[in-house]
């Protein structure tokens, strides 16, 4: 019952705050007590060379009891330079309060001190909220001058007693199998969420990685709300896209229909209406996870409007960066050795590549009401006019003064057209249908159609027709300020990371192995006796095992252990 009341109240709050300029502080505080989020991120490394990858696991927590928060469905992670510019930004889909991904550092980035931050949209309403923040050192060995923060390499002391790491040996040879056993003495660890990293320790690694235990001691139950005028709503049902229309001739901007098309084999098509300020919000589905988006004002007077997106951003001014200094000579040899190893590993990427989670094909919004015609089942005609007349049932077109329309005969109006028909190509809204009459029908594979009245959003259409091309690559020719063709950021796709296996020693005998990162498991499951195996590489030295995460009850787990490769 409590959960139902929360969502009902939040729905009402979203509507009222959407229409207002100033936000009532008491209302915000009421909802913040329920949302009250904080973000923690476990990083594989905080000192990285260009061309390397940082792996991460993000935990979205309730700030009061530290359990996993399932309120927000989207979170963000960014790397910010000392000038307050975001150089890398990723959007993450939270599943039961957690998400995972990786950050590849391109060679175009300069050496220096950076910040890695993690947050949800709701946190943007606060001046100093419980977002995640840590220093990141990026080294570009191809630059002649390198300025970096002062290095240190202090091993942390383990304070966690609930979990221990047991190794079958203390030292290993190259390409040898390592057997790691996690010994848990409390049952509550079994239902928690954790991540494990095994990586080489060298003089470049800074001891500024924030443990889960330390993070818990620093987060606050309450933070100061400062965003009184431009409230950023929490993404409760999925990722949101916000925009606004303006009128060039003084026309009203309220109640106008805006369409969003993400075309393709699996497409997304949505309609929403603007508020009194001309603002609109789309809530996107998880799939399809495509970036190509077309926004349109759907109106007879659409050319009188201009459409823009509104992007909420983090206040980078609150970040403080450490001072830098010239790199010492003794570090240059270490950087050179690590850079060579990284380049060799990248050269063999095709052999050791990761795999991505399969993307399921989604069904159109009009399923299962549609009927489908495959044009290859009929005699193909050279023009769309003939195709409509000869193949599509109850369909006709009109042409007057160069303006085309495609219509469906309404059963209730004795065969006479009644209202607008929703015309799509690969899920892309076509308002000026003249352009598809000039399209080569040989590229059309099939046609989905609905001949009855169809209600979608606030619109009632006299049927639906979706022309599906063979390659799903139709490009809208119509243009103007009322159309916005853009790329939108979508959540990162889940990867399954490569794990080296030398059980068949001959298979990789001639392939070099210069991995500094021996193991990364972002979704580690801890049982009473959990055994993990992995192989060392050709890199020698000391290696660190780091486990971070939280139990189901919100208890932080931070554990480190070390071994040597000779």
Q: Strand percentage, roughly?
A: 35-45%
Rough shape?
elongated
- The number of distinct helices, counting runs of at least 4 residues, comes to 6
Strands of the biggest beta sheet: in what spatial order? 2-8-7-4-5
Radius of gyration from the CA trace?
Answer: 28 Å
Give the helix level as a range of percent. Answer: 10-25%
Mean pLDDT: 87
Oligomer state equals single chain
Biggest beta sheet summary: 5 strands, mixed
**Low-confidence runs:** 1-22
**Number of DSSP-assigned strands:** 36
Distance between the termini: 60 Å
Write the layout of secondary structure elements.
Layout lengths: L1 H18 L5 H11 L1 E7 L3 E3 L3 E10 L11 E7 L5 E8 L4 E7 L7 E8 L12 E8 L7 E2 L14 E5 L3 E2 L4 E8 L8 E9 L10 H7 L21 E8 L9 E6 L5 E6 L5 E5 L8 E7 L6 E6 L14 E2 L2 H19 L7 E2 L14 E4 L9 H7 L4 E6 L2 E6 L13 E4 L2 E2 L4 H4 L6 E7 L3 E3 L2 E3 L2 E6 L13 E5 L7 E2 L20 E8 L4 E7 L5 E10 L5 E10 L1
Parallel strand pairs: 2-8, 11-36, 25-30
Antiparallel strand pairs: 1-3, 3-6, 4-5, 4-7, 7-8, 9-20, 10-12, 12-34, 13-33, 13-35, 14-17, 14-19, 15-16, 15-18, 18-31, 21-32, 22-27, 23-24, 25-26, 27-30, 28-29, 35-36
Question: Mind explaining what this structure looks like?
Answer:
By secondary structure, the chain is mostly beta strands. The chain contains six helices and 36 strands. A five-stranded mixed beta sheet has the order 2-8-7-4-5. A five-stranded mixed beta sheet has the order 11-36-35-13-33. β4 and β5 form a beta hairpin. The longest helix is centred in the middle third of the chain and has 19 residues. The chain is elongated.
